[in-house]
Hints:
By secondary structure, the chain is mainly α. The protein has helices at residues 4-29, 34-43, 50-62, 71-103, 114-125, 131-158, 164-194, 200-230, 235-262, 265-268, 274-278, 283-289, 294-303, 311-323, 326-345, 352-366, and strands at residues 107-108, 111-112. InterPro entries: Isoprenoid_synthase_dom_sf, Polyprenyl_synt, Polyprenyl_synt_CS.
Amino acid sequence: MVQGSRLVDLVQSKLDLLIDDRTAILTSLAPEVGPLGVFSKGFLSGGKRFRALFCFWGWQAVHIPDFGATDEETRETLDTVVTAASALELFHAAALVHDDIIDRSDTRRGRPSAHREFERVHDESGYIGNAASFGEGAAILLGDLLLTWSDDLMNDGLRRVPDRSNASAARREYETMRLEVTAGQYLDLVEERAWATVSDSEALERAERVVLYKSAKYSVEAPLVIGAAMAGADEAQVTALRDFGIPLGTAFQLRDDLLGVFGDPAVTGKPSGDDLREGKRTVLVLLARANVTPAARTLMDDLLGDPDLSGDQVELLQSTIRQSGAVERVERMIDDNVRLARAALESAPLAPAAVAELSRLIATVTERSA
């Protein structure tokens, strides 16, 4: 059985080979486009690879080994699912590049975000015009490029799935995932601006909707089902994986929301309180806003979304959120969703070894510090 660390290595190798190949094509067109390949490789080096892991274990949960297969056939079968899993990592990278532009984020994983890297290219090359505008435009194109490479890899993986109906089912899930996460990103953008036009309860419901479509389904549920579909999952198996994936994905995003406000920059690779500067109206923030004094609420409304928040102002907002009791409520929500995810695995019609690994991944994605 392939272990998680081995899978991560296989995915990294797959990504490196594809980017090296595409970079050679890019630089043959013109040397000036070389940074697209260089930044792609840097951006896809490392990372937690959660989507690839869930894709693989969704496949493993359903896959029936062919004990009569040759070593070469077994390697080919494994490479097929690794290829699809790698496509999900490329899609995720594209989403992060675009997300950093939308959120005006300066860093990603402790390094300059893509648009900031392209600003540096502009300045070091002596180009005329506005560096920020160049950086954003170039990063949009990089994200688009990563999206096309993601589709290339997914097509390559699915064309090698022996059963065409299985491949079609996986492709439909992939297409649904792309639509839903784009809608979720847009809803996230809307909620940063629409919160004042709705009631507190409706704002919270809408924030939970963002969690579902921007993260829960995209980060856990869809990768699981894509992998399972490739292996020929039946309706009961898909249902079990969805029942597991959605609450776990919700817990994953709620942990992300806590880290976005209280995370250690040395661990997260992003400035402390980054979500506060971006004005994210997360479940955490909305729970806090609903449970503070009118004066504290006014303070939150005045400060949230200010990109120039000082360290003292960030600490003041952090303290306000803590004192509201919102942190404890979000932690309870995480615990509740973890219980739902664990319950979904009990007696699920899935391979025991995969169930054991999925159980271990629960802690990995919900008890993390980055």
